[in-house]
Amino acid sequence: MSANGSEPRKHTISVLVENKFGVLSRVAGLFSARGYNIESLSVGETLDPSVSRMTIVVTGDEFVIEQVMKQLHKLIDVIKVTDLTDDSHVERELVLIRINAEPQHRAEILRTADIFRAKVVDVTAVSFVLEATGDEGKLEALIELLRPMGIQEVVRTGKVAITRGPKTRVRRAPASKPRVSEDPRVVGFAD
Amino acid sequence: MEEALKVPGARVVLECLKREGVDIIFGLPGGAVLPIYDALYDFEGLRHVLVRQEAAAGHAAEGYARATGKVGVCLVTSGPACTNLVTALQDALMDSIPIVALTGQVPTHLIGNDAFQEADNVGITRSATKHNFLVKDGKDLGPIIREAFHIAVSGRPGPVHVDLPKDILVKETELIWPEKVTMRSYNPNYDGHPGQIKRAARAMVRARKPVLYVGGGVISADAHAELRELAELTRIPVTTTLMGLGAFPSEHPLSLEMLGMHGTYYANMAVHHSDVLVAVGARFDDRVTGRVDAFAPRAEIIHIDIDPSSISKNIKVDVPIVGDCRRVLRALIEAVKHEKEDAGGAEARKPWHDQIAEWRATQPLRYEWSDDVIKPQYVIQEISNLTRGEALIVTGVGQHQMWAAQYYKFTHPRAWFTSGGLGTMGYGLPTAMGVQAAHPGRPVINIDGDGSFQMNSQELATCFTEHLPVKTVIINNSGHGMVRQWQRIIYKERYCAIDLPGIPDWVKLAEAYGCVGLRVTRPSEVVPAIEKMLSTPGPVVLDVVVDKDECVFPMVPAGGANIDMILAPPSREARDKAERSQTGF
């Protein structure tokens, strides 16, 4: 439903949750129960070991993303929900690529790896495993360049993201959409 | 940590319930919760009502919670007991009813081993509750039960489930009782945004065709007095949802009664033509809106709700106000009074009130009278008359539920108990038990259908043994009437799987359970039978054999626009209308 006319696009949502049993299942269950599709999800502990951060990439129009944010916030174990998409932030993903290492391709693979600042983490007579980090675009480009040489397997972590600059509250209410939740408390912060 | 004394975990659970102010629990024992029942044996001040099936314990807790505004509590064992309870949990979730459900679980060292009567209780109830807990350490019992009650009753109320492994209940532990619950991840917002309230007040005063659309949130926030004050101050007509019945007196001159799929003609017309629609504690359910793009198409929509996720979920809202209905309405009354001085006055709204009066006069709720066969609507009207709208009315789900909603004249909040969101058949009798337990001296009438009642009729045994004198009126049309109605109007009279031909004999069934059974088949017998039922001391089942061809009107076919109401028994034109609007659910 794109009732407000906005186009669906990818959003990176950062969620702070209580580091408790069952929280991942609550978040995953919410997405499946309401028909939202998670493109990637990564979870890890924060500086405070009682708090975990989930970085979720989800595609939707403004209407869907507003509901996703509100529904996440409604979960009792969720402490804070932030949509990083329109804020200045850094996104990284890690990929491990197992690739055929035919003699005629070995040099080309290593050159490409070098350009992308990827590391060779495993070598055999017939294969390499490369490790690369970067944003989605860079990793896609690397994979596309390597594909003709015979990729055997790709393992990706899913995205993690952090805002740029010193720590501030960086949630802007978009000014051009007066019909959707002008109330700053619609998506509230528990803290 | 005020008591160094160690007692079994089961005892800690009961002590916590007592400290939370619980005086009654609805339950059914079994292996994993036996330690609690053992502790209950000589525990003072807690009444236990033994139900016959676990879902009934959940519904009874719902009835108690809705009648009192307090948290209802149920207690059942592990595995199949918990899975039986799921329906009641989901029901409470959708209708925002505060209950705490305690279930037993196999001992912690057996969890995950497919032990006897083991199920992944918290996994199963996760999506059917507002929150749930698995207790893994006896020291957590106090804090978790305290949080469970806090979560159930605060913010948008809902069911909370606490799963209790047997070893935790057996092992001795100290009671840890936090005086205050503080949760960094859960702090509902109660006060509406002042700027938004001002905007809403301005829109309401400026409006020429305003309508208040009121849901169950007004009842759970106990905001009926504020609602009435605001409606009378602004002279804005009020329509309520199924869940909101009782929030505003049905016979008040400003009342439009219920809106939506089986709402009144005048309520649906008024909402459709409104220029400002003020939604208070309602959630724009599909049974209310009909086709979303045709719902109140010209209205500026103000939405007051405690749950941010209800806002702009189904319908885009112009003025969202997140907060407790009572506090927001109170602030809105002050804001409107402030605005009023420079506004046009009530005269500008006269054409609107005249228009509504005309709709009301041309299309009132109506049915055809018969001298030979009992019309179901007539039964509800007489129950309403004979109790002067003062009874506590519970229903099952189906045609009888809609007729009760349409024809019973509600005077007070917390006097109407129905499964709104989930539409749980069999809800009536067990819920009525909870209502009766909360108000032992007041008349509780379960208006049920013959299909719906059969889903929980075993609870007549509970009514009898626990001295809960619930009066059940079965609107008996020998079948699943609402399904029949849809098959008749929408599926071209291809009747399938709807007949419940005359069995069981309800009078004999009532008598088998120690209750009084009565039956009427003629219109002239209805009033004396209801009087007899009301004056009989114990539980009574009154079987009213009604016209099985009667349908609920008005009716908006699912997915149709609300102004496309079918007002009378299906003509060709009505059937075409239904076919055009049908979207398949």
Global structural class of chain A: alpha+beta
Biggest interface, chains and residue tallies: A-B, 33 and 29 residues
| Number of beta-strand segments of chain A | 9
Oligomer: heterodimer
Structural class of chain B: alpha/beta
Report the sheet with the most strands of chain A, covering strand number, pairing sense and barrel closure.
5 strands, antiparallel
Low-pLDDT stretches of chain A are 170-191
- The best one-word shape of chain B is globular
Number of strands of chain B: 20
The end-to-end distance of chain A, rounded to whole angstroms, is 32 Å
Measured by DSSP, the beta-strand proportion of chain B falls in: 15-25%
Output the number of helix runs of chain B: 23
Account of the 3D structure:
The complex is a heterodimer of chains A (191) and B (585). Chain A has 191 residues and is α+β, with helices and mostly antiparallel strands. Chain A is 25% helix and 36% strand. In chain A, strands 5, 6, 7, 8 and 9 form a five-stranded antiparallel beta sheet that branches. In chain A, strands 2-3-1-4 form a four-stranded antiparallel beta sheet, covered by helices on one side. Chain A is elongated. A six-stranded parallel beta sheet of chain B has the order 3-2-4-5-7-6, sandwiched between helices. The longest helix of chain B has 16 residues. Chain B starts with 5 loop residues before the first strand and ends with a helix. The mean pLDDT of chain B is 94. The interface between A and B is medium-sized, with 33 and 29 residues.
